[in-house]
Amino acid sequence: MRHTFTISILSALIGAACGAVIAGFLVDDGPSQAELDRTIQAAVEESVSQAVEQARDQSSAETDARIEASLDGRARRIGEVFEDVVRSVVVIDAEGPERVNDEGVTVVPAALATGFVLDGRGHIVTAAHVLEGMTSFTVIFNDERRFPALRVGDDRPFSDVAVLRIETDQAEFEPVVPVFGRTESVEAGETVVAIGNTLLGREIALTVGVVSNPDTTFFRERYEQEHLIQTDAALNHGNSGGILVDLDGSIVGMTAVIARETVDGGFVDGVGFAVQIDAVLEVARGIAADGFFPRPTFGVVQERLLTPTAAVQLDLDVSEGAFLIELERRGAFARAGIRPGDVLLNMNGVPINAETPYLNALAQLQPNVPVLVHIHRGGEEYRLSIAPDLRAP
């Protein structure tokens, strides 16, 4: 349609220009054919230039209108998504036991987090790290209804998933279960909405961004957290346990991690992560059903990933592995004779190093299935067959 309009303008202008030139020469007796050709050519070029300029103006106006309509439609859709999903998002007000601090003042530890409805039985999913040390929980819905909740269980240190259960009569309140998306449908560049508490109070707010990477990892303390969606949607500490939603209104992730600096200590901004919803639901539904998610354990309470610098500090003659700091007295490693101060080099031939920290390697094992464990102690090495226990609820 635009091309037809442009040609019509061009034809009209050229025709008018040629008519004007010829009419002018009819008054003047004696122009040569060459002069007539040059004059007509100049008139045609000017007419073409005018036609092109008019077409550009029209095209620019149409493009601006389309962009404005697209932005308006996107804004309306974001608002619709928020209205649909916010009923399934909660603020979690958590408190710990009273204690006396170093100054002799009695204090009550507290934390605010976000969560979302898992099912119609009142189970709420949230991030485990913000509930650590907390003992009482109040779930606050967007309509300001408040309910006490019990902690069902969590998956730390393997993942950051925790589950609470609302204590209320089902006849009194029936939670709205959201729509859960699929991890495989998330693509780089698509618009996503992060919904959660931003610590500005107990209100639920939203931020908008794009997916930077739909499947990435991030190193956290003792392990490389996997199955993460990276986004530039603004996240704050209160967002932990909140949701990442696509423009179809489906939850695609649980917001959990904010990156503040690079590995070498450089400052970064606008980098946040959400755990892919498939991974979250697998663990959360297991916890809701059984009170725990089945994981293997050797009874390692604390370990440290070795680096060449750490090996020198600890006066070790190996530079990779996991330095075992604390073990459970009745754990599988302790029963096999392994002691604090030993270095775990590999399990089933898989080296323990920065690429595969201990917890990542452990997560690949099955409870009660023997594993060949390679240990370094005092300049000597040992290989033992040990079956990890099933982690107790």
CATH class of the largest domain: Mainly Beta
- Named at the architecture level, the CATH assignment of the largest domain is Beta Barrel
Largest sheet: 6 strands, antiparallel, barrel
The name CATH uses for the topology of the largest domain is: Thrombin, subunit H
Helix content: 25-40%
Distance between the termini: 68 Å
Give me the count of strands: 22
Averaging pLDDT over every residue, what do you get? 83
Please count the helical segments. 6
Anisotropy-based shape? extended
CATH homologous superfamily identity of the largest domain: Trypsin-like serine proteases
Which spans of ≥5 residues are poorly predicted at pLDDT below 50? 1-7
Strand line-up of the largest beta sheet: 1-4-5-8-7-6
Tell me what portion of residues adopts beta-strand conformation: 35-45%
Order of helices and strands: HHEEEEEEEEEEEEEEHEEHEHEEHEEE
The number of domains: 4
Quick structural overview:
The protein is of the alpha+beta class and 393 residues long. It has helices at 2-27, 33-85, 277-290, 308-313, 332-335, 358-363; strands at residues 89-95, 99-100, 106-107, 110-117, 123-127, 136-141, 146-154, 161-166, 191-197, 204-220, 223-231, 243-246, 251-261, 267-276, 296-297, 300-305, 322-327, 343-347, 350-351, 371-377, 380-386, 389-390.
